[in-house]
Structures are given as structure tokens and as C-alpha cells.
UniProtKB/TrEMBL annotation:
UniProt keyword Metal-binding, yes or no: no
PROSITE patterns in the cross-refs: THIOREDOXIN_1, THIOREDOXIN_2
Swiss-Prot/TrEMBL GO biological process terms: cell redox homeostasis; response to stress
Any one Gene Ontology molecular-function term assigned to this protein's record: protein-disulfide reductase activity
PANTHER family: GEO12009P1
Species name: Roseovarius gaetbuli
Record's protein name: Thioredoxin C-1
Lineage, opening ranks: Bacteria, Pseudomonadati, Pseudomonadota, Alphaproteobacteria, Rhodobacterales
Top-level division of the source organism's lineage: Bacteria
Amino acid sequence: MIELGQTQNAPAAGDLIKDVSEADFMTEVVEMSQTVPVIVDFWAPWCGPCKTLGPALEAAVTRAKGAVKMAKVNVDENQMIAGQLRVQSIPTVYAFWQGQPVDGFQGAVPPSEIDAFVARVIEAGGGAPDGGLDEALDAADEMLEEGAAADAAQTYAAIAQEDPNNVRAYAGMARAEIALGELDQAEAILNGAPAEIASAPELEAIHAQIALARQAAQLGPVAELRAAVDAAPSDHQARFDLAQALYANAQAEEAVDELLAIFRADREWNDGAAKTQLFTIFEALKPNDPVVLNGRRKLSSMIFA
């Protein structure tokens, strides 16, 4: 946090995010908050942490698609408001609902806490019970897809604190840990899930993903395993190892094809290992994934042929 100081104008904002002054604070914050929660960001142009927090808040508010609005108050130009709300340092953030402050924090915070804060504000404003959390979960999913697994894990964890029975949050935490290579931690998260959600299909799918990741951990490169299969096409163990490596390399369809080839040649090989592995992959993927649908269809046609 930085103590209050000098002057400059705030950047322009859109309908959801507005620059607010003492002249329109009553209209844009107090009156507006009678119908929709309003987050007020007290900032100044010279404040370093404000330059990080402000855009992150704006992004979270934008993702909420109108469930919450944001007012930016330059404390240098609006010292009376800052004084009335006892803003001693910046950045300071307050959330208003029905004319009153209902939540807030000081200082720069990580994205996970911002998303959780916005979710709380939306819920305080009577939004859909899971609406704000869904927005935060969507943001965490996007972080994970973009490779920011550590940030995603923090966001999922913050959501789980807000809603301890949120299946998506627990599944997300575990998936983030898998992406970070922390399989033991991912398994611990699943084992620590509340009893009410422990058997949810989404969490069972993560268990399957962990099992597959553990299997692939000791395997060599796909190219070497492929060469071994090409050299000995009837070596089911070599093909099985290749299938494991393919799945670990995000080639699920190719992995399923190799396992189907084993099942077609010898369905009883290694106590039906190919069929068991196929079902593990099917559990790890989404039920409507084309790989699952096509794989199940091909397997059924072999079983009932």
C-alpha cells in the first residue's frame, strides 16, 4: 500500500466501469447500488500497485457481464469522498449494495482473491447463488487452459473457500496440480473433498486422470515406443506402453486406437488390461467427448461381434 499523495486524471471507462467524482458519486454509486452492486476502486495515477489492481478488477467486472458495476475514484481529485470513507492508503476497494459498503479490502491482491471478491459482491447483491462463482470458475478455467496453472489453482482454492461443496472448484484445483506435475497433491485434494461431493463424476474423472498420469510417468518418448511396436507388432506390452504414452502426450484418440488393436487381437491379454485401460481413459474424458463416443462404439462392436 502507498500513502495518499499527488494528482492526475483517471482513464476513461465504459458503461460498466466509470470514472466517478464527488459530483456524481451519489448517483453512480449510492443510487446505482440500490439495484446492482457497485465496486469502488480508490486509486491515484502515481500509485504503482493501483496500476496492477485496477485492470484486474476491471477484467473481473467485465467478465461478470453486468452483475456488478465499478466506479473508479481518483483520491487526489476527490479527497472529500476518500475522507468520508476513511481511505487512509491506496489501493482501497469498497463494494456498495443498497447504498451501504458491504465488503472491501486494501492493497494489491492476487487474481484469485479478486475473482472471489467479485463473486461475493454479486451474491451479496442477490445475484444467482452460483452466478458470481461461475464467472470466477470460468476465469480459472481460462487461466488453466493458457498455462497459468499456479494462478488457476489459487482461484479454484478461493472459490472452494466460498463454496466448500463446489465440485468444479475441487476438480479445478486437482487439474491444476496435475498440470504442475504434483500428482500427490492432486490426489490429496480429491481425498479431502467433502463427503457430499466425493463421488461426483467430475472428481471420479480426475482420479482416472491421476492414475493415467502415474502410469505414464516412467515411460520413454512416444517415438521410441512407436519404433518398438513397429519392430514387433504382436508385442502387446509394447503397444500398451505406447498407448499410455500417447494419452499422456494429449493424443487420446491415438491411445484408444492402440488399445482397441490389442483388444481385437487378444481381449484376454494380461487379464483384460486393454479393456480396463480403455474404461480408465473413458472415465478421464468428458462423457460427450468424440473420442469416448467413438471408442465405446468400436469396443461394443468388438464385444458383441
